[in-house]
Amino acid sequence: MQTLANWDGGPGPWILFFPLIWAAVVLGVVTVLRRTVWRGRRGPWRAMPDAGPSGDSPIAMLGRRFASGEIDEDEYWRRLSVLDEQFGRTAGKGGAA
Q1: Do 63 and 84 contact (CB within 8 A), yes or no?
Q2: Which of 26, 55, 62, 91 has the fewest other C-beta atoms within 10 Å?
Q3: How much is the pLDDT for 60?
Q4: Cα(9)–Cα(48) distance, integer angstroms
Q5: Per-residue model confidence (pLDDT) at position 50
Q6: What is the pLDDT of residues 5-39, one digit of tens each?
Q7: How far is the CA of 60 from the CAs of 13, 25, 80, 84, in angstroms?
Q8: Could you tell me which residues come within 8 angstroms of residue 63 by beta carbon, excluding any fewer than 6 positions away?
């Protein structure tokens, strides 16, 4: 009877490495697909859509008005608290109450 470990015309013990090679290839393909195609082609350089207020949102407009000096800090925080309640944003930035 001939076994896999027999060197007399048999395939030899290296035949056991083929499943490991195929597993490495499949794992590599899955890893590449997860990092590129399956993520919706988002790269690490693109911002998440929910990363912050968009340019047309009321919160962004309020921030621009505060930055340009049209409103003072008290007015900014008062209006921001109203917008937080209306749009459901979570409070906690700057310790606003």
Answers
A1: no
A2: 55
A3: 86
A4: 59
A5: 53
A6: 555 666 777 788 889 999 999 999 999 888 887 66
A7: 66, 47, 10, 12
A8: 53
Query: In whole angstroms, how far apart are CA 62 and each of 43, 69, 88?
Result: 30, 11, 16
Angle 10-11-14 (CA atoms, 0-180°, nearest 5)? 140
How far, in Å, are 3, 37, 38, 49 from residue 44 at the CA level? 51, 13, 14, 13
Q: How far is Cα 88 from Cα 82, in angstroms, rounded to an integer? A: 10
Give pLDDT tens digits for 68-95: 999 999 999 999 888 888 776 554 454 4
Residue 65's H or E segment, with its range, is: helix 58-68
Angle between helices 73-87 and 58-68 (to 10 degrees): 180
Six token digits for residue 90: 């979570």
